[in-house]
Amino acid sequence: MTNANNQQQERLVQFQHPEKILNFLPGLTDAQIAALFQLDAADYQALKSRFQEQARKAAQELLADAAFADGIDRLPFQPGEIVLGLGESSTDDLLSWLELLRQAFALRRPQDQVRFVNAGVSGQTTTQALRSLTATLLQKPNWLICFVGANDVQRIGFPVAKSLVSLEETARNVAAIQHLAATQTKARQIWIIPPLVVSERIAANPFFQRLQLTWNNEDLIALGDLLRRKSGSVLDLQALFGNPTSPDLMYPDGLHPSLAGQQAIVRALVKHLI
Fold first, then answer.
1. Half-sphere exposure of 213 toward its Cβ, with a 13 Å CA cutoff?
2. How far apart, in whole angstroms, are the C-alpha atoms of residue 4 and residue 2?
3. Are 259 and 54 a contacting pair, CB within 8 Å?
4. How far is residue 99's CA from residue 59's CA, in Å, rounded to a whole number?
5. Per-residue model confidence as pLDDT tens digits over 158-201
6. Taking the C-alpha atoms of 17, 96, 104 and 60 in order, what is their torsion angle to the nearest 10 degrees?
């Protein structure tokens, strides 16, 4: 197997988790999921364990900062509570902000037994998040952290590109998510505004070019304005990552936060919550 194939499999395992969208299939095994990636079960588990160890090391790096460690100690999560992250690939990522937060909390406050639920699904729009929300909310989270919208403004087709979800529909979806969460749970809601993309990297990415996919910062700025108006407690990654976005905070694809970017999100989220 070539190095390129290995890298592709690693990235797929990092960002794609079929068990989340195939949860209606009873008895889905690791061996069956591994086969989807053309891996055997042992190699699949080894890859997942490696990402888990990377997340743990990244959390340890964060905790080496006394101010961050103190922030974890002061987070208002109570023993036994459920923290649910609703999102797309930037949350579904095995090295995401939620996974780093999970690891940091386990290292610093293991006795509190707070449960972190990663309900991120790569490629998910606000429409799809809304479609699955009632099932997701059956877990009765105490905290709902929403990091959605970047796929709504994904544009398809060259030269005339259509966004997957209109801004008006995104606004309706956000309002519906907020209403359902407020009426069906007692969860405190926090909304995360997606950062801007690194446009030249998006344009140069062969995968995006082949499938005629693009993201425009003008659309993301409009999305950010919408979320600032519609949402109560907001963590603004457009302000955090900058305009233009700092390239170091993004993967080479220009779309997804790098591990350094995910660490920056966790730092900012902890400050926001305390």
1. 18
2. 5
3. yes
4. 9
5. 887 899 999 999 999 999 999 999 999 999 999 999 999 999 99
6. 110
Helix/strand/coil (H/E/C) assignment for every residue in the chain:
CCHHHHHHHHHHHHHCCHHHHCCCCCCCCHHHHHHHCCCCHHHHHHHHHHHHHHHHHHHHHHHCCHHHHHHHHHCCCCCCCEEEEEECHHHHCCCCHHHHHHHHHHHHCHHHCCEEEEEECCCCCHHHHHHCHHHHHHHCCCEEEEECCCCCCCEECCCCCEECCCHHHHHHHHHHHHHHHHHHCCCEEEEEECCCCCHHHHHHCHHHHHCCEECCHHHHHHHHHHHHHHCCCEEEHHHHHCCCCCHHHECCCCCCECHHHHHHHHHHHHHHHC
- Pairing state of beta strands 188-193 and 234-236? parallel
Q: Which residues pair with 252 in a beta bridge?
A: none
pLDDT single digits (tens) 88-103: 999 999 999 999 999 9
Closest CA to 265 of 244, 243, 238: 238
Place of tokens 């790096």: 61
Q: Determine the Cα–Cα distance for residues 103 and 137; give it in Å rounded to an integer.
A: 23
Could you give the count of Cα atoms lying within 13 Å of 185 in the half-sphere of its Cβ? 23
Virtual torsion, Cα 266, 268, 269, 274, nearest 10 deg: 130
0.85 exceeded by pTM: yes
Using an 8 Å Cβ cutoff, are 228 and 234 in contact? yes
